[in-house]
Structures are given as C-alpha cells and as structure tokens.
Write a structure and sequence with these properties.
Elements: H1 2-19, E1 27-35, E2 40-49, E3 52-64, E4 67-73, H2 79-85, E5 93-94
Length: about 110
C-alpha cells in the first residue's frame, strides 16, 4: 500500500506540473483528471488555435497493482524519464503504448 501511495503521489505531481505549462500557440487550457478510485490519471488539453479546435489527452497513466502503466505519452521528454528522475525503478514502469510482445525488448517492466 505504501508503494501505491508513493506512485500515486509522484504521478499526480508530474501531471500537475505538465498541466501548468502553457503551449506556445493558441488559446489552450490544460487540466488534470485524477480518478483515484479507478487509478486513472490524465492531462487533458482543450481550446483553439486560429480556427482549429484543440482537444485531447496529452498524458494518460494508470496504476495497476504495483506498476505504473503509461498508456499515452504526448510529451517530448517522456513521462518514463520523469519517473526515473524521481528515483522510481524501471521495473515499476510499463510502457503500455507498446504492444505486449514488444515490451520484453524495452528496459522496462512487461506488465
């Protein structure tokens, strides 16, 4: 339980930091969506750039068991790198955006 709480705290901190970054274009807002009961964590962007609608999830992380599952990562740096910078183990991180078979070839957990 202590490990889950640590993971939850770190994920929420990172996503909150990302939601506060303003894009270099358009009138776009970002907000976090934290579902602690279901263990789903997201950063959503919404707004307009000129005549184009901006809407979508830029980061999606789930906590499953004792692992952090990165479902979607629309960042340049990489959320996995941010987690490693906060002293989490590669074995605690699943790159869920890779197909299950391919995960064995990464340095991260397979699931």
């Amino acid at each position: 339980m202590e490990k889950l709480e640590r993971h939850r705290t770190i994920v929420k901190e990172i996503l909150t930091e990302y939601s506060q970054r303003k894009p270099s274009y358009g009138e776009v807002e970002a907000y976090t969506c934290f579902d602690e009961q279901g263990e789903h964590y997201q950063v959503i962007r919404t707004g307009w750039h000129k005549d184009r609608r901006i809407y979508g999830c830029s980061i999606h992380i789930d906590l499953k068991g004792d692992k952090i599952w990165i479902q979607y990562d629309g960042t340049e740096i990489g959320i996995a790198n941010e987690l490693l910078d906060r002293h989490l183990s590669k074995q605690d991180i699943v790159l869920a955006f890779h197909e299950p078979f391919a995960r064995q070839f990464t340095e991260f957990a397979v699931g």
